[in-house]
Specification:
Pyruvate-ferredoxin Oxidoreductase, domain 3; 11 strands; seven-stranded mixed beta sheet; Alpha-Beta Plaits; 2 domains; 337 residues
């Protein structure tokens, strides 16, 4: 009951409900575990960590939850955190496919891996109020040859009052020393850079923001809400499929000037991203020529880069709008009911 005597500002500094929004392969699950370990074992707080995800593979949605309280405050629930104080978005593209800020409190904190400014993120997410923290965690991870999770943890420690950066740093050091000792120092550097290289802006709550409440989404596949006969209306091979949110920050870049149209890329691509057309050569013979990549279907696995014999396909860090500008669409026929 002691927390009932604290002011609102003291409560904010003495507790934190954190939800991490990510995709498989970026390390959000491990980040949640390390934050909870730092809070409970290093700082003496009460806390818990849980995660929700489907198949354990790269590119699939992942949510990790961390709740921390002062040692005299009991945590009585281990449910998914629906109204967090802090949301960490490990992959900017998730904001286009799902409501990452659902339930975020009016004075909450949004930490996002992005190259955008806080004002641009606010427009992207339609966040009404609170603190927006932008960090280019992908660039830091690429330069340090690590993953974005430790950079995001650094940014979180910078902005979440209850988190002790030194305690989290010690957990990172211990975790990587035991599992991947060669990556220990690089991940400490990644954490420190994430802590330092943030751009933060605070937006004052307004009446509209204060009246916002979390609404739990209704599953379209419940026994009352699923289509008649259990029909899957958006099948995996549908032309409606969009895999952009499953990319971990990289896409294949195609240079048609060095492409020999051998088809190796098409053979290894799991999602048929490559667009071909039949044309005649100088001798009048018909051949299939590569026209480009339909990035709507590309999940950034980069298998095509590995097998390209001429380096016509190379790994490129995806910049905002690049896929839309360079996309060559398939000419699939669209069924009209």
């Amino acid at each position: 009951m002691s927390d009932m005597k604290l002011t609102e500002e003291e409560l904010k500094r003495n507790s934190a409900d954190i939800r991490l929004e990510s995709i498989g392969g970026l390390g959000a699950n491990l980040a949640g575990k390390m934050l909870a370990e730092a809070g409970v074992l290093r700082m003496g707080l009460n806390g818990y960590n849980s995660a929700s995800y489907g198949s354990e593979k790269k590119g699939t949605p992942v949510k990790s939850y961390v709740s921390l309280r002062q040692p005299d405050v009991t945590i009585r629930s281990a449910n998914p955190i629906e109204e967090p104080d802090v949301v960490g978005v490990f992959h900017e593209a998730l904001c286009k496919t799902q409501n990452c800020i659902a339930g975020l409190k009016a004075d909450g904190i949004l930490v996002i891996n992005t190259t955008k400014s806080p004002d641009e993120v606010r427009e992207l997410t339609d966040l009404k109020s609170g603190t927006i923290v932008c960090v280019d965690a992908m660039r830091i991870a690429v330069e340090e040859k690590t993953r974005v999770n430790t950079a995001m943890m650094g940014a979180l420690c910078r902005e979440v009052p209850i988190l002790d950066p030194e305690a989290v740093r010690e957990v990172i050091r211990e975790t990587f020393h035991g599992k991947y000792p060669a990556l220990r120092d690089a991940n400490i550097r990644t954490f420190d850079r994430g802590y330092e290289e943030v751009v933060t802006k605070v937006y004052a709550p307004d009446a509209e923001a204060m009246s916002h409440h979390f609404v739990r989404p209704v599953s379209p596949m419940g026994y009352k809400t699923q289509p008649m006969g259990g029909v899957i209306e958006t099948a995996g091979n549908s032309f409606l499929k969009d895999l952009s949110a499953s990319r971990q920050g990289f896409v294949p870049e195609l240079d048609l000037n060095t492409c020999i149209h051998c088809g190796n890329c098409d053979q290894v691509c799991p999602d048929m991203c490559f667009v071909w057309s039949e044309r005649t050569n100088e001798a009048g013979r018909s051949f299939m020529y590569l026209d480009g990549i339909d990035y709507q279907y590309c999940k950034g696995c980069l298998k095509c880069v590995d097998v390209c014999p001429t380096n016509a396909l190379t790994q490129l860090r995806e910049e905002d709008g690049y896929a839309e500008q360079k996309m060559v669409k398939h000419s699939f026929p669209v069924y009209q009911a």
